[in-house]
Amino acid sequence: MVENLTLSDEPLDPSQPAQDRLDHASLAQRIAEVLESLRSEDSSSVLALIGAWGAGKTSTLRSVASRVETMEGRWLTATFNPWLFSDEESLLLGFLKTLQDVMPRDRRWKRARESVGRFGQAISPLGKLTSLVGG
Fold first, then answer.
1. Alpha carbon distances (Å) from 17 to 8, 23, 92, 100
2. Own/partner pairs for 91-99, CB < 8 Å, 24+ apart?
3. How far apart, in whole angstroms, are the C-alpha atoms of residue 36 and residue 71?
4. Per-residue DSSP letter, 13
5. Do the beta carbons of residue 117 and residue 135 sit within 8 Å?
6. Which of 52, 58, 59, 84 sits at 20 to 30 Å (Cα–Cα) from 23?
7. What is the pLDDT of residues 17-57, one digit of tens each?
8. Residue 47 — φ and ψ, nearest 5°?
9. Can you tell me the distance from the alpha carbon of 93 to that of 116, in angstroms, rounded to the nearest whole number?
10. Would you give the DSSP letter of residue 5?
11. pTM of this prediction?
12. pLDDT category, 111, cuts 50, 70, 90?
């Protein structure tokens, strides 16, 4: 009997391991370990995941996010899609808004949210700021 194998352009859901026929979970676990290691060495690091269309980048990123959110220490994760913005200014403001939205709403994070809002205000004409000001 031939197994029914269909291909989809939809990213995998990390909570459904049976979907992961190419074992993105192993790569995601290794990336999460590298991130944790980098975090202990430096307070600021960048990691890039590069691959061809359909290679599983989004699936891997979703799986990494679900892992780091459960690691010791508090990780904040956000999903940001730069392809949704038509110009550089909208892209930057969209990024700042996403960053601000992922920050907790407690008193400890208030200054950070306000700083992101002030930065957005400093770089943008007044018309596009309403969602950033005030944090």
1. 16, 9, 35, 31
2. 92/120, 92/123, 92/124, 93/120, 93/124, 93/128, 93/129, 93/132, 96/120, 96/132, 97/131, 97/132
3. 8
4. P
5. yes
6. 84
7. 666 777 878 888 999 888 888 877 776 667 788 889 888 88
8. -130, 135
9. 10
10. -
11. 0.66
12. very high
Pair of tokens at residue 26: 């192993």
Q: State the Cα–Cα distance between residues 28 and 12, nearest whole angstrom.
A: 12
Q: Are 78 and 104 contacting, i.e. CB atoms less than 8 angstroms apart?
A: no
Contact by Cβ (8 Å): 60, 31: yes
Please report where in the chains the tokens 């202990």 appear, as a residue. 40
Residue with tokens 């194998």: 5
Per DSSP, the three-state class of 38 is: helix
Q: Write out the two tokens for 27.
A: 């790569």
